[in-house]
Specification:
The chain has six helices and no strands. It is mostly helical and about 160 residues long. Bound molecules: heme C. Heme C binds next to α3, α4 and α5.
Length: about 160
């Protein structure tokens, strides 16, 4: 009788140990990460083709730039994932950064390059592989030109306090 009880106890302990091993068997990397630590993404399928015939605010809003960037003068553009787009102030700093090895010679061309090939230069303190790399297929040449012209003119002084 006593050995039977003991057997039951040991079997129960065994079961608990087994289920613990089962639960821990999942490697940490494959456990779902809390959503706040997941990098923000903007699926290409959610963005329409931007022709450049839209008013400038719509160009930025439709392209989704506003989700990640503060852009002076563009209502609702208050994203904080990427740097504020005040290239009139920051553009020359980027071009003269010792870490900049892109092909642009002017701030205008740096903006175009940043939109089409964001991996060319990752602004210090901001995440890489976050700025979408598919804008070349979503922005017409006109839309891209309007974006570059507009952003070249924005300075830190244009940021609301
Ligand atoms: C999902 C977030 C996200 C979206 C959407 C996005 N960006 Fe960015 N962008 C970033 C991040 C993060 C950086 C900084 C890292 C880097 O340089 O790649 C960045 C960098 C830039 C830079 C370089 C800025 C600097 O100070 O040197 C420009 C210009 C830019 N983005 C323009 C745009 C434009 C225009 C759009 C819309 C057509 C856009 N971005 C959409 C996240 C985003």
């Amino acid at each position: 009788m006593r050995t039977r009880d003991q057997l039951v106890v040991w079997m129960a302990i065994g079961l608990v140990a087994l289920s613990a091993v089962w639960a821990l068997r999942t490697p940490p990397a494959s456990r779902p990460t809390p959503s706040h630590s997941a990098p923000p993404t903007l699926p290409a399928g959610t963005i329409p083709l931007v022709t450049g015939d839209e008013p400038i605010a719509d160009v930025f809003t439709r392209a989704g730039c506003s989700v990640c960037h503060i852009i002076p003068g563009i209502p609702g553009a208050n994203g904080r994932v990427g740097p504020p787009l005040v290239l009139g102030t920051t553009g020359l700093e980027r071009l003269t950064d010792p870490g900049y090895h892109g092909n642009a010679q002017t701030v205008h061309d740096y903006i175009v390059e940043s939109v089409l090939e964001p991996q060319q230069f990752v602004v210090h303190g901001y995440p890489e592989h976050t700025m979408p790399n598919w804008y070349g297929s979503k922005l017409s040449a006109l839309a891209l030109e309007k974006i570059a012209l507009y952003l070249t003119r924005q300075t830190e002084a244009d940021l609301s306090p």
